[in-house]
Amino acid sequence: MSDPLDALQAKVRALREEFERALGEARDPQGFQAVKDRFLGRKSGAVTGLLRSLAGLAEDARRDAGRELNALKQDIEARLDGAREALTARSRDERLAHERVDVTLPGRPPVLGRRHPLTVVREELEEIFLSMGYEVYDGAETDDDYHCFEALNMPPDHPARDMQDTFYVAGHSGALLRTHTSTGQIRYMLSNPHPPVVRIICPGKVFRRDDDITHSPMFQQVEALVVGPGITLGDLKGSIEAFLHALFGPQYPVRFRSSFFPYTEPSVEVDLGCIVCGGKGCRVCKGTGWLEIMGSGMVHPAVFEAVNARLGRMVYDPEEVTGFAFGLGIERVAMMKHGIDDIRLFYGSDLRFLEQFPA
User: Fold this and answer.
1) Fewer Cβ in 10 A, N or C end of the chain?
2) For residue 249, what are the CA distances in angstroms to 208, 273, 322?
């Protein structure tokens, strides 16, 4: 009959050989855990089972066998820990070799956003007018027929409305997207905190049914309104010249031509010496040497009368006060300043176009 201790030692040797093979086949943390569960698991581990079988041995044999099994258990744990550490170090070395960073290279600056070129131009316009003593007044983009047309001397049958056929809001009688920022001028005069004196600009988005390389269904305007006793056409011309010279430079001449607008009388168009050719004549100015820049004129007495009628009292007496107004498109200014020939580029969200402008 064989010695139980010899038989146990034979099983220990077999387990060592089996563990060496299993450890050599493990390639990842999950494999190492499977080996540990196979040999040292609390319920079904091979070494754990042998430790339970020691109860059937004599005391001396049990002591020697327990010492050998504990040594096997500690060896297995140490070998597994060492294999895990070696795998971690190897993975770290491979990752460092693959993701090597040259710390001597200069850093990459973060990509920063920038203001839209139209925003930059609008702020420049506002700063010029603020320096001239004007107040910036923001009006609502959705308005009604009275403020957009009727108060500006354009009754329902006026032919000038055909040029500003616009977007009406369904379900709201008379509500529409404003076709010009002149609606803000009317609203300011109605709520003027210091009547009858007015000196404001009204910048903002406007909407018209246009869409080509020089027109957009949505664009931006800035309009100015000055009202008070003794305001003359000379004040209008001087203010416009001062504004345009501050915007483009004093080297460009300013020219005034007779025109027609329903809400001004007399009305004048304003031309600026071509900033491309310097007045010599080119494709941009169509050989004339001039670029049309804005419309302007003296406020029509009918506008004052419409505001007085809405207020129910004589606040802006056409016999006592006069005024002038002028307006221009912000996109047109940006196109002239940067030599852009298609207004749609401003609204195309193309970074190749927008990133050409300085931050």
Assistant:
1) N
2) 31, 11, 29
